Amino acid sequence: MELPKIGDRRGDLTYVESRRHIPFDIARVYYLYGVPTDAERGAHGHRELEQLIIAVAGSVELVIDDGHSQKSYTLDDPTKGLYLCPMVWRDLRCFSSNAVVLVLASHPYDERDYFRDYLKFKRAVAESERQLP
Ligand code: TYD
Predict the structure, then answer these.
(1) Paired residues of 115 in beta bridges
(2) Helices marked H in 1-133 — which ranges?
(3) Which of the residues are catalytic?
(4) Domains of the chain, first to last
(5) Nearest to residue 116, comparing CAs of 43, 57, 56, 52?
(6) Which residue is closest in CA terms to ligand 1's atom 9?
(7) pTM of the full predicted structure?
(8) Residue 127's pLDDT is what?
(9) In the prediction, which pLDDT does 132 show?
(10) Which of 54, 89, 125, 131 is the one with CA 20 to 30 A from 68?
(11) Residue 57 alpha carbon to ligand 1 centre in Å
(12) Which residues form the Sugar 3,4-ketoisomerase QdtA cupin domain (predicted)?
């Protein structure tokens, strides 16, 4: 998602408003930093959580998997956010040494919302598709 940018000779400013730039109310903000360049994070999916992920400094690669196919995105621009809907598996890797990754989330932290096992995630995707009308 393209985020607004207000720049002048003092530098740049980007802001995000719930329900205007992103389709959910922000209940939580967290950020990843000091991540070793050979570290991988994520490796989970969420049942209900929506998120916007922004590399506010440096860059990171995100691999998104909806249970059928994978797509890889490089985030390296603080004016661009990647929106993640529920039921997608995400892997974060190739953090640059200076990366700061900001995450805006629709719910407070709740471990019960996580899929940490990829096979269970795949089974839940198949199950939710069976329930579609
Ligand atoms: P984890 O979800 O494994 O991080 P990542 O997805 O970046 O690899 O979370 C790491 C630890 O931090 C884990 O013990 C849960 C805890 N945590 C919180 O307490 N609150 C939070 O908002 C988040 C995102 C994680």
Answers:
(1) 45
(2) 118-130
(3) 44
(4) 5-130 (2.60.120.10)
(5) 43
(6) 42
(7) 0.96
(8) 94
(9) 79
(10) 54
(11) 20
(12) 2-125
